[in-house]
Amino acid sequence: MRTGCLGRYRGFAQVEYEYVRQRVYASFDWRTFEEPSPSHRVERPLERSRIALVASAGAHLPEQPPFDLGKGGDSSYRELPADATELRFAHAGYDTRRADEDPDVVFPLSLLRRLALAGEIGELAPRAFSFMGYIPETEPLLQQTGPEVARKLLADAVDLVLLVPS
Amino acid sequence: MGLLQRVFDEHGLATVSITQVREITELVKPSLAVLVEHPFGLTLGAVGDEATHLAVLRACLAEAVRPHAAGAIVDLGFHWEHDDLRERQLHKQAH
């Protein structure tokens, strides 16, 4: 991770860095890497692939607890069944009223179901995973909840993970 | 999403992510990202714009099965032309 003063990132990375540090979380910094993470091929054609949705829009089922919108962020996740239709959104970083009106703008579960029905993809994984994208302290995500979800995706034998931000 | 994607990549999963901000993804370097220049909270497009939602999704999935060098960021060519929401968000003047 880089350390230092203001003015070292480009574009919105710098804008967000300054905003979060000044108004929300004083010790915030971007987690940066010198090398890309390894790339793995999708082993089957899309029309035979099992695809999992992982999104950071703060989606949850009505009966699940919403995400913590406090300044410390929330690295927890929610599991949503692939046939979920009634969604709620909790996120401090964007106006969730748009997602309330049309969940597909940030959590395209119903669109993926349609692609599966049309045969464009093989099938949806049995569950989707939902995070809330504001996580200023990343260690719990990197060491705990991220690996937990990775193991669940492997258990679900997914061919491809589609990650959608908000 | 890039940090989470890196975790999945390290576990051997095939992944593709959408990014709305190239410069942040360049800091994190996940295996494969596709750039969609839509506002925050409208990642796939405007409310009710199903045609664009599907177009983004299809384009994203198509890139996932094409060969790319690790760390690639592919511009899908979607730009926001409805209003200045994205521009204001990028200056923290809108939510």
Structure notes:
The complex is a heterodimer of chains A (166) and B (95). Chain A is an alpha/beta fold and 166 residues long. Chain A has two domains: 7-35, no CATH class; 46-164, no CATH class. Helices cover 27% and strands 15% of the residues of chain A. Chain A has helices at 11-23, 97-101, 109-117, 139-155; strands at residues 50-55, 59-60, 78-81, 88-89, 123-124, 127-130, 160-164. In chain A, the strands form two sheets. In chain A, strands 1, 3, 5, 6 and 7 form a five-stranded mixed beta sheet that branches. A two-stranded antiparallel sheet of chain A has the order 2-4. The radius of gyration of chain A is 17 Å and the shape is globular. Chain B is of the alpha/beta class and 95 residues long. Chain B has one domain. In chain B, helix 2 (22-28) links the parallel strand 1 and strand 2. The longest helix of chain B has 15 residues, at 50-64. Chain B starts with a helix and ends in a 5-residue tail after the last helix. Strand 7 (160-164) of chain A pairs parallel with strand 1 of chain B.
